[in-house]
Amino acid sequence: MDYFRKLKTKTKHHFFYITFQFEKKIKKIRNKVKGYTGGYEIGYVDFDKNGKAIAKTNQSSFLQGEGEIGARTTGIKNFFKNTKYHNNLYKNFIKII
Prior knowledge:
- The chain has about 100 residues and is mainly alpha-helical.
- A two-stranded antiparallel sheet has the order 1-2.
- It has two domains: about 1-60, no CATH class; about 60-95, no CATH class.
- Helix content is about 60%, strand content about 10%.
- It has three helices and two strands; from the N terminus they run H-H-E-E-H.
């Protein structure tokens, strides 16, 4: 939190510059993961002007369930959906070695 206290004392221009750099690095990491996994989009944590953390993700919690499907079944469904991303990541990792 000390970082955000210092950040508040800076000008708005400096705040937006740091925000821009942060978002630029996140985008680079997310694109790299997306390429290695064949399309999986990781989430990330962003911060508002007060320093409060906000989760940014397109994933939904399996605890909520989907319609008539319960949380357990939704978790299993998501597990099998994500195996293709895992397998693509594994194939790309093996190519590096």
